[in-house]
Structures
1.
Amino acid sequence: MPLNRRDLLKAGAVVTGAAAVTAALGTCGPSAYAATYAHPGLLHTAADFTRMASKVAAGTQPQTGGYAVLTANSHSASTWTPNAQTTIDRGSGTAENYGTAYNDIAAAYQNALRWKVSGDSAHAVAAVSILNAWSAKLTSITGTADRFLAAGLYGYQFANAAEIMRGYSGFDLSAFKSMMLNIFYPMNNDFLVNHNGACITNYWANWDLCNMCSILAIGILCDDSTLVNQAVNYFYSGAGNGAINHAIPYVYSDGTAQYQESGRDQGHSMLGIGLLGVFCQMAYNQGIDLFGYESNRVLKCAEYIARYNLGNDVNFTTYTWGSGTNCTQESQTVISSGSRGLNRPIWSLLYNHYVNLKGLSAPYTKLYSSRVSPEGGGGNYESTSGGYDFLGFGSLCYSL
């Protein structure tokens, strides 16, 4: 029986991944999850799409305002022409072309959303044409270490667009799954296991988190329990900074918790909490509640980041880590004000889950959600990659 959004169903099967992967990723508590998955079941469920469409049809806010932002975005036009590449290349000094990928992914996702809300099949055809073009052409992801960011960010996003379109006439889901399993997943796995040959703490948490999101999304898309187990077990007890207690190392008595990159800058802090929201949402839609881990540790971190970026003071504990290949010790003694007050389409997901669904208090997350509402997506923020790190449109998609 498919998992639903409300029930936590954990199976007793043994993880079937390779021993090397298991050793590197670790386990915590039940280590295997049910092998039957609900579809659609990544960031959005069938019930979510029904809600979106009915709210927009009724003119309800903020969904209607969110939909207006979506339809005004050029990426959502059904006339979008895909620009698939044989290679996605990312990294300074290389033949960078990864912008073609994140633009096409934004277009595929946004057209898929417009189809689900409006019923206009022209948008479904547009989304399918983009996804089919990439699965027919892409052969590799290359570049500097940034290639692992590309594999993680665009892996989870591609999978989400495909999950919406699965079953639609003309969509070659088999070819798309092959692309995800043979091009994206090996790089996601390689990063989590080997970390590009660096000290385990060298890479910031967002590097792990985007690759975790990709593995989880691919696992659900492909009904592959080994991948789902790998991603969820890494969240609990992975060796790198994406594991939950490494990504959020310090919890304070005031109900906030410091993020691993808080001493770096606020743009990457928002990237990190946003990716944690994405990861938890995809797991939750398959009955795995990571939002509630350790008395809502993710919420405490969201409150910390929102509180500081709204202009308030927060606690800060000196953060020390090992860098490079020799784990040279470095420390940050104060929180960074870099990119403070940045807007990102990450807050509606967190606010609606914790406040409107769970009934918890999240005053700073609520304020930030109101500040950025209605949320846009790729093309509504800056034109560089940071503006495309999230699929967005949370006011439409997550408002309950």
2.
Amino acid sequence: MQRQTELAMPTTDQMQAALMDMGFGANRAVRALRATDYKGAEAAMEWLLSRAEDASLDEDFTEEEGREIQAEVDKAKAEENKVPLTAEEKAEKLAKLEEKRLANRAKREQKEKEEAKEKEKARLESGKDMGEIRQALAEQEIRKLAVLRRQEKEDDKKARARVVAQIEADKAARRLEKEAAKAEKEGRAPPPTAAAPAAAAAPAAKKEYTETRVQVRLPSGAPLVHAFGVKEPLSAVRLFVQMNRQDGGAGEVRLMTSFPKKVFVEEDFENTLENLGLVPSAVLIVTK
């Protein structure tokens, strides 16, 4: 099969000879050809004319430059000696390249699909783990609130019992006073006084709390309830509100109590809930 004829390009030797015929030195000609990527004597000549005063172009080549030049010359000669491909050979080569490109693209798309599946799987597993964590925290919160409410009911029951006992003791004391006054009027000895009940005589021991139940009312009216340690600072309540509010509010949270009315300032947020009188329970309001 007859090969196509193409316009022959001058060889590197021919381009160098042409530049030397123009009066340029051998080293200067080689450097110009390298700088213009061996595109021809004309391009090299223009490059040299723009650097006519550069004396370094005539200096001897270093060993490293010599090796690079020799490699470039060998490559150029190999290209010069290469036989042009026929149209059929070019078409076959292009077909192989296209086949390889499609195969690489298929591999890349398959890899991307597998990576997407792995990412989706990891996302689902992460979501499942977060759901389980939220559920566990919610259950823990419910248990803590249940314990706190039982404690509050028990404290209320004991307080009511103390009040009833005090009322009965007061009644008994008034009755004895009336009988003593009547006996004195009638000239009789006063009746013996009964010992006051120990429960009424001895003041109740102050309850030591370790937790406090705080209800925070958002501007929308929705409540947030959480149990905090009495030694935690008020800033812990502010952080809890910022992380859990779902009313669309954002930014710094300001808190206040309605009764007695008190707007907490920045210094208060470093104080403990116990010192601020927010124990054993409290209702706070988020101000705008």
3.
Amino acid sequence: MIDLEPIHVALRDRSYDIEVGVDTLGRIGECLAPLLRSKKVAIITDPVVDRLYGARVRDSLTGAGFSLSQVVVPQGEEHKSLRELGRVHEELAGARLERSSTLVALGGGVIGDLTGFAGATFLRGIDVVQVPTTLLAQVDSSIGGKTGVNLRAGKNLVGAFHQPRFVLADVETLRSLSERELRAGIAEVVKYGVILSAELFSLLEDDADRILALDREILAEVVHRCATAKARVVMEDEREGGLRAILNFGHTLGHAVEAMTGYRRFLHGEAVAIGMAFAARLSAARYGFPVADADRVEALLKRFGLPITIPGELNPGDLARAVETDKKRQEDRVKFVCVEEIGKTRFELLSTQEIEESLRAI
């Protein structure tokens, strides 16, 4: 039996627990009964996740005495939009939700981000519970309260910080992912190893085969380690005023690659993998990151079947300008997360010209 301690995110009146386990979806009602202010709950999910897990979650919640409504959002990053958010708001109003009601985000990162932002804005803020069903969401996007939707100009440009009330990560749901979705989620796991834990990075190198084989024990350990690391960063810097920006490693370029390919060619984790490979090479070329360690980063990404090369048709100048729209820019420069050694990062402010030059060189 896999028994992992709940992870407590201590943020004063916004504190909450993260529970990582195996085959725990059926416990959601039991977990929420003592936590929530009201028995009125709306589940927000997508058609695929609803078919796989909706009945189990609804049965658990109704068995615990909750009154349910549900909103189904089409699958895909293109639906993480202001238009879809407006539709969700209208359906929540039609279900007569109140300020004491709770939204349950059942799905991956798109559902989690959209539901979180709906919770932050509907009735000026109601509680949200995250039930992530993808690896990317379990280790990253469900934790920390960053919510939002995309604009044509870039990813997550409209959003709010809105911490969840509770997070339940059942690694058994990872078995329903396609191989591509699983590998894309592993990109975020590699990120934690590069920026925060040389020990985790080595574990990934040693146990890649077990992870890809969906070994329950190693999956639960990896998700728990990553969630613990994210919680630690969020507790120190809830609103990304300093340390938390290290979690953007690989994302600054990755978001630009996603935007320039219409959010259709790459999954989020695949674009982040490309961004991490670039950031590792940039760090080696300019900031003293050992070339051998940059090789290790690329080798591990490739071991997990992730892309590391920027598509040749993306013009470096256009890509650099797309990076410039990033939320982390300061005046005419972008805060880039670079690496000094595996497990240790540094920030560099780069101009559009410097980014373009590095893209051409690397």
